[in-house]
Amino acid sequence: MIACEEITKCYPMGSGRKHVLKGLDFDIRPGEHVGFLGRNGAGKTTLIKLIGGVEMPTSGRIRRNMSVSWPLGFGGGFQGSLTGYDNARFIARIYGHEYREIRDFVEDFTELGPQLRMPVKTYSSGMRARLAFALSLAIEFDCYLIDEVIMVGDANFHKKCHYELFEKRGDRALVLASHSADLIREFCDRALVLHQGLGTLYSDVNEALDVYASL
Amino acid sequence: MNTLPGGWRIQRRVVGALMVRELVTRFGRENIGFLWMMVEPLLFAVLVGILWRFMKGPEEHGVSIIAFVASGYIPLTLFRNAVNRSVRVFSVNSSLMYHRQIKILDFIFVRFLIEMIGAMMAYLFIAILLGMLGEFPMPADLGALLMGWFLYCGFTFSLCLVLAPLSEMSDVLEKIMPVTTYIMIPFSGTFNMTSWLTPSAQRAMYYSPFVQGMELMRHGIFGDRINAQWNFGVPVAASMICMVIGLAMCRRVRRELVVE
């Protein structure tokens, strides 16, 4: 389970501070799929970064009793000057996995071929997303944090993600930040609507989508 | 996973992986690869040593001038490189914060470790090379040499722990760093023994942790041929104070670190 207790997050802005999150309290249970809804700048990405431990909350606490992936988003987690293979080797090392297994899975999942021998900074966002997904799927987490990025891929990537994430790993917990109502409706059990720094968790996804549409 | 041996295993794994990553990004895999890390201190020590040899003659105060300069310059380059490489180390590596097992102290430690290993390799290489030419003595007391080296390294690392978070808090630090590292050369014991100085200068040098480490190293190399004076209190106390302050500052910077 992941328990978020009274978390707030402020960023310095000019001479003052910007309060992005003003006290959120919720749990993510094992195997549960939670959608994050909110307009641009509502704090979806910030919240995912806090859950993933990339940034620290200004106050409050996040307890993680299951393994949580790093946030799979547009950037982050890679060293641009290193090749795809080097990044895979690095990830394999820090997570204590056998590099060969990771490499085989990455080659198969990304279908990037010789491009894996090029620096990651030369990749398109779709190619990065493939690599990030492949690596985090190969490591196997109890909970995956997905920030929008699922949308950038092509149809073939969607099909693969669908199979690997929702079918093969359907028992894992999932946090999905997205503006796509279809995606949230299809895959999420609950949804958190973020608005003006506060969050409301709805057990009925359709209700959450209605609230979100009216914001 | 949270047990002590488990934590130790993760720590070793992370430091190893970060070392390889840092070496590959900095030096690449072309030509001599990671061996580049010892080239800079090596060139500095040898070339400055040769320069002094021609300016001041073969010996100073009864010891080979090349050996004396080399034994001073390698710790000095370690200090300068380590300090410069700890500037903005958190923002440069912030993408690594995506992986929770990597802590910000690992960045500082890994960068320091690379400089230290490079400097030690350069030291060994120079000692053997100059030793074969009869310009570098067999260390009189290897234990003292290593002790002095680790005192010097310990203080340099503690200083990095303060400077790294400080460079994130203020941009001024980055600008005044080069001139500061230059100004502190007379206080580093690089080019002279304390006993060669005037009594009032000697009293001032007593409080420099670098001088204490350097004197001990020089004693380890040249033995009784030079008059070395050192104490452990100053470098150990200075290191501990810097370390406590540095750790507290690192913790604060981590809380406010913004990752793209």
Characterize this entry briefly.
The complex is a heterodimer of chains A (215) and B (260). Chain A is an alpha/beta fold and 215 residues long. Chain A has seven helices and eight strands; from the N terminus they run βββαβαααβαβαββα.
SSE sequence of chain A, one letter per element? EEEHEHHHEHEHEEH
Query: Largest sheet of chain A at a glance?
Result: 5 strands, mixed
- The count of helical stretches of chain A stands at 7
The amount of helix of chain B comes to over 70%
- Gyration radius of chain A, rounded: 17 Å
User: What gross morphology of chain B would you assign?
Assistant: globular
Q: How many distinct domains of chain B?
A: 1
Number of strands of chain A: 8
Encode the helix/strand succession of chain B as letters: HHEEHHHHHHHH
Sheet having the most strands of chain B: 2 strands, antiparallel
Decide which structural class fits the backbone of chain B. mainly alpha
The structure class of chain A reads: alpha/beta
- The number of helical elements of chain B comes to 10
Overview of the molecule:
The complex is a heterodimer of chains A (215) and B (260). Chain A is α/β, with parallel strands linked by helices and 215 residues long. Chain A has helices at residues 44-52, 84-94, 99-110, 125-139, 155-168, 181-187, 205-214, and strands spanning 2-13, 16-28, 33-38, 59-64, 143-147, 173-177, 190-195, 198-202. In chain A, helix 2 packs across helix 3 and helix 3 (99-110) crosses helix 4. Chain A starts with a strand and ends with a helix. The model of chain A has no long low-confidence stretch (mean pLDDT 91). In chain B, strands 1-2 form a two-stranded antiparallel sheet. Chain B has one domain (37-256). In chain B, 71% of the residues lie in helices and 2% in strands. With 260 residues, chain B is an all-alpha fold. The interface between A and B is medium-sized, with 27 and 24 residues.
